[in-house]
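User: Here's a chain of 467 residues. Predict its fold as C-alpha cells.
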Amino acid sequence: MSDYIQILHRVSNRLTSVKEELEIYQIMNDAIKQILPDSYFFISKLQPEDMNFRIIHSFGFDKFLDPIKTLIGKDPFQTDFPFRDLAESKQKLFKTRKLYHAKGGIFEIVNEIINKTVCKTIEKNLGISEVLVISLCVGESYFGGATLFIPEANLESEKRNKEFTLTIETLAAQVSFAINKLRDFQELAKRESELTIANTKLEYQNKEKKKRADELVIAKEEKGKRADELTIANIELEYQNKEKEKRAVELVSANLALKESKVKYKSMFNNMPDVLWSLSYPDFKPLYISKSAKALYGYTAEQFMNDPMLWINTMHPEDKPLADVAISELKRTGESTRSCRIICSDKSVKTIVDRSWLIYENNVPIRVDGITKDYTKGAQADQALIASEKQLKELNATKDKFFSIIAHDLKSPFNSMLGFSDILNENFEDYDTTKQKKFIGLINQELQGTYKLLENLLYWSRSQEGT
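Assistant: Prediction complete.
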C-alpha cells in the first residue's frame, strides 16, 4: 500500500473524532507536511454576507507574517478578495474540486489585488516555486479553499503524478465532508439546546400560571382589596399563554429543522460522484451503497443491495482474479486498493480505482467500508503516455545513429584538409607558386565536398521538423 493511501487512511481515522473546525485544518496540515515537507499553506473562507475570500488560518507562515504585512502594507488576514471579481471560468473551476496549478503564482491567486512585483518578492523571500489551489466544497456548494506554497526543494522529490493529484483532491474532499458534518452536528446540538431551554421556560410558565391562579383565589376572598392585582395577574396570564403558544410553534419548527438536517446529511452522500459502500464482515453482504452507483455502473443501489454477487459480475472477466487478491490483502493488512475494469449495464467498459478498509469494534473487524472512483480517463491517458514514450525512444535512436554516421563522414575530409594545410604551412617558402596552388586547390576541393555534405545535413534536418 502506497504512502499516500496510508496518509489518507490516518486522516480518515482522525477526522472521525474532531470537535472543532480548527482541528480539521490541523489534521490537513499534518497530512500535507507528510506529502510536501517544508511547504506552506493557508485556508481561505468565503464570507456569505459579501462573497469575499478571507484568510482564516495559516500554517508555516508565522515567521514571515510581519515582513509580508510590511510588503503589502496591510494585514493579509484583514484583506478581502472578492469572489465575484474572478472570471466565470475560474469560479466554475473552484467548484470542480480539482487541484489547480496557479501558473501566475501569488499574483494570480490574489486576483491581481496585490502588486505583481510585491507578489514576486514574497515568493523569492519564501523560496516559493509553485502554487497549488484546491477548493473545499460539497457538490456545487463552495465555501472555501486551501492554497499550497511549494518551495523549490520539493520540486525534484515530488513528481506531481496522478496519484499525488488524486491524494490532494481526496484529502480536500475528506476535509470538506468533515467540516459539513461538524457544522450539521453543531446545528443539531444548538437545536437540542434551544429545545431544552424552551421546555424549561414552559415548566416555569406553568408554575407561574398555578401561582397566579392561587393569587386569584386569594384575590376573590379579599374581594375588592386585590382587584387591581387580579387585573394585572390576568394580563400576565394572557401574555404567558401567548408565549406558550409561541414556544409550541418554535418546538414544531425545531422538529422540522431536525428532520430537514437528516435529509440534507443523507443527500450529501448520494450526491457525491464517487460510490460509497459498506459490506458486512466476514460474509461481505451489502449494507449500504450510495445512489451514485447508477452513474458509474448503470445499475441502481437497490440492484446491488438485492444481488450480493453483482459486484463480482460487473468485473471484466480478465480482471476477476484481482478480487481474490484484494480480499487477501484486506484480511492481511486491514486495507486494500485495486484498479480494474468493469462492464457496465450498457456493455461499455470503464476503469475504476477501488479502496477499502476494515472497521473495528472492540478490536474485532465488523464491516468493510470503501470508496470507488471512475479512473477511465486516467487509464486512457496512461496508455497514451506509454505509446508516446516508446515513439520518442525510437526517434532518438534513429537520430543518434544518423549523427554517428555524419560524424564519421565529416572526420575523413577534415583529416585530409588538416594534412594538406600542415604540409603547406611547413613548406610554403620552399614550394613554388604552382605547387602552392596545387595544395590550395586540394584543400578547396575537400572544403567543397564538406560544404555539400553540410548542406544535405541541413536539408534533412529541416525535413524532420515536427516529426
